[in-house]
């Protein structure tokens, strides 16, 4: 037992010594990026899938749990693979050119995005739309910072909020099929289901009656 413990401690010391080697830093950073991508993807997707599944999806408990597990796995795997690809390509480009330049980031992320997130499925679609909204805000701020557009005299956020809500509700009312399924479900619950009730039970307690009245 003591010999086994000594072997484990020796192995741990060897691993720690390896992690301190600067010549292996780029490769180790790629591996840790894969690890962090997997963990972060699971942390983000699991609670979201749990809430959305139990709020809006029908089926047995086993089917719901399977759906949650599948969504969590897909998000975790994709994010881990993307980080691995991105950091690997960044390290390769820096090694080939002897330094890191801004284009490296754009090129590596484009390749990773194509390979990992190129399939049009619900998980990838949600991630891309999440990023798109942040990009639009960031590019707007960058345009002001660089002087490409003048600094607004008043906070433009109220106008942005008004236009976004106006547009999304117009799309929901008249072109609902163009919206993402989870957004359709959310808006149906909020705006359509609130138009229908039969008695106090499905007016205050439940959204829809489950009996045959």
Question: Care to describe what's here?
Answer:
There is one protein chain. The protein has 213 residues and is an all-alpha fold. The protein has three domains: 22-118, no CATH class; 122-151; 155-206, no CATH class. It has eight helices and no strands.
Short description:
By secondary structure, the chain is mainly alpha-helical. The chain contains 8 helices and no strands. Helix 2 packs antiparallel against helix 3 and helix 3 runs antiparallel to helix 4.
One letter per element, helices H and strands E, the order comes to: HHHHHHHH
* Outline: flat
Helix content: over 70%
Would you identify the regions where 5 or more consecutive residues have pLDDT less than 50?
Answer: none
Number of domains: 3
Which structural class best describes the helix and strand composition?
mainly alpha
**Largest beta-sheet characterization:** none
- Please give the alpha-carbon distance between the first and last residues: 69 Å
State the helix count: 8
Q: Return the average pLDDT rounded to an integer.
A: 89
Protein name: PXMP4 protein
InterPro entries: Pmp4 (IPR019531)
Pfam family, one: Tim17
Organism: Centropus unirufus
């Amino acid at each position: 037992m003591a010999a086994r413990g000594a072997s484990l401690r020796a192995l741990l010391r060897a691993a720690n010594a390896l992690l301190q080697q600067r010549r292996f830093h780029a490769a180790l950073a790629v591996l840790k990026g894969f690890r962090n991508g997997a963990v972060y993807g699971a942390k983000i997707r699991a609670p979201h899938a749990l809430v959305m599944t139990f709020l809006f999806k029908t089926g047995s408990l086993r089917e719901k749990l399977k759906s949650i597990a599948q969504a969590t796995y897909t998000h975790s795997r994709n994010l881990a693979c993307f980080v691995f690809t991105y950091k690997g390509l960044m390290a390769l480009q820096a090694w080939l050119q002897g330094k890191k330049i801004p284009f490296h980031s754009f090129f590596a992320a484009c390749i990773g995005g194509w390979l990992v997130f190129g399939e049009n499925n619900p998980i990838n679609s949600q991630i891309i739309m999440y990023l798109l909204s942040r990009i639009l805000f960031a590019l707007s701020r960058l345009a002001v910072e660089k002087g490409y557009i003048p600094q607004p005299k008043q906070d433009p956020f109220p106008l942005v909020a008004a236009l976004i809500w106006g547009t999304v509700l117009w799309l929901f009312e008249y072109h609902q099929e163009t919206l993402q399924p989870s957004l359709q479900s959310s808006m149906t619950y909020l705006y359509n289901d609130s138009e229908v009730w039969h008695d106090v039970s499905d007016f205050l307690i439940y959204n829809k009656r489950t009996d045959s009245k």
